[in-house]
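S2.1 Query sequence (LPS export ABC transporter permease LptG)
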Amino acid sequence: MSKIDKYIASSVLWACLIVAVVLLGLDFALTFIEQIKKVSDTYTIQSLLQVIMYRLPGKLAEYIPIASLIGTLMGLGTLAATSELTVMRAAGMPIWRIGFAACQPILVVSLLGMGISEFVAPMAEQKANLIEKFQGQESDTFSLTGGVWLKADSDFVYIDAADATGKLYGIQIFSPNEQQLKYIIKATSAQHVDGSLWQLNGVTQTIFAPDHIETNKMKHADWNVSIKPEHLFLASQEPETLSLSQLMSYQQYLRQQKLDASQYELEFWITALRPVASLALVLVALSSVFGPLRSSTMGGRIFSGVIIGLAFQNALNLFGRMSVAVNFPPIIGVSIPILICLLAGIILVRRRG
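Output structure tokens follow.
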């Protein structure tokens, strides 16, 4: 890499990092203001701050495409404002060479974001969920929001939360008999023992007999269920908080059970194609810097970047959710706005060059 390539790359990289920090700061502040109403004797401000901090790695990975767009506009815009890009072009440096130099740091940042999504964000999100659920409620109560419902053999099971070690929290098992309930089992936690055997802890069993209702309390009880521990853990997490390997594993399980896996497939492709989305947005930014934003102020470039980024993100959400709704492959829905940006960027760059 020549000195001029390194100079362009460093300008774009620093601008991208600054934008990412600003976006995370805004997200932190807005989330804190929104969530402060949840603070109580059990869910303290320290707990709230912990939850927000644990969720920042996942937010960083999500913001990388937008940070790449605005960072490229700022980095190259600064060079344009000082006429450095004009000198480079006058010296015979083609636009594609400038674009190649700008794409290199963005690719590195995007791959770093993939690593965060795969190895850091899922574990951090899990810790945030556990803090939010179990410091935000009394220990002897159950929350019926934010968890997951699933069908296990002939029973319907609610899991309030789970961790990666296979331990479940806030279990409720509803066993139906045609149109009536046979019993309800509530347990504070559950641990996998072996095979299909689980141990329930802090158990309250309510039996619905024809003429009376019977309640029994036990410290421990056995629970036989055919679902694997890792699948119970993955089922209790939101799709957007899972890593690529976890999304792939749970997709395969759902398909084996002949269940709908489209939501998990959608999140898989959104995460997997983030580096491509970042590069597509860099091409759009490059064409804008040499085109309509050549003489624009820094504020104008940032505003334009925000508008383009919001339009891209909304298009990604729209086409992605639409693909799930109309039952066609999610990869197509995710790819449409990315391909539009790629084609638009390539066409505009060729015209400027």
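The mean pLDDT is 89. The chain has two domains: 3-135+261-352, 148-235.
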